[in-house]
């Protein structure tokens, strides 16, 4: 069987692409912003913050969790979500390298 498109790129490139894809929807960006604002784990309030159905919010939360942007802990019958600081550290390092490189470029 042939190689997949992701096989031709580094683990870091694939990780950044996965994170970027997860952030590629405004509802997911809104969820991240909400979790940052409340600065605590949230169990059910997220649905009240977005103009989306519960099932849709759950799907967005799943995508964010699969990308490592949020963590989910089971508390009773609910899953409580919060920011995964490790993944945001990866993003910080990645974009810091880009900013430094672009700032030092002597290009058109």
TrEMBL record:
InterPro entries: ArsR-like_HTH, HTH_ArsR_DNA-bd_dom, HTH_MetalResp_TranReg, WH-like_DNA-bd_sf, WH_DNA-bd_sf. Keywords: DNA-binding, Transcription, Transcription regulation. The keyword DNA-binding applies. CDD domains: HTH_ARSR. GO terms for molecular function: DNA binding; DNA-binding transcription factor activity. The keyword Methyltransferase does not apply. Transmembrane segments: none annotated. SUPFAM superfamilies: Winged helix' DNA-binding domain. Residues 8-106 form the HTH arsR-type domain. It holds the Pfam family HTH_5. PANTHER family: REGULATORY PROTEIN ARSR, TRANSCRIPTIONAL REGULATOR, ARSR FAMILY. This is HTH-type transcriptional repressor CzrA. It comes from Chryseobacterium jejuense. The gene is czrA.
């Amino acid at each position: 069987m042939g190689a997949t498109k992701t096989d031709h790129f580094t683990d870091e490139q694939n990780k950044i692409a996965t994170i970027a894809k997860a952030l590629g929807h405004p509802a997911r960006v809104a969820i991240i912003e909400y979790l940052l604002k409340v600065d605590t784990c949230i169990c059910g309030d997220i649905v009240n913050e977005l103009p989306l159905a519960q099932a849709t919010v759950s799907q967005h939360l799943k995508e964010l969790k699969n990308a490592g942007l949020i963590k989910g802990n089971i508390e009773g019958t609910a899953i409580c979500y919060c920011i995964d600081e490790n993944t945001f550290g990866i993003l910080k390092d990645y974009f810091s390298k880009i900013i430094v490189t672009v700032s030092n470029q002597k290009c058109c």
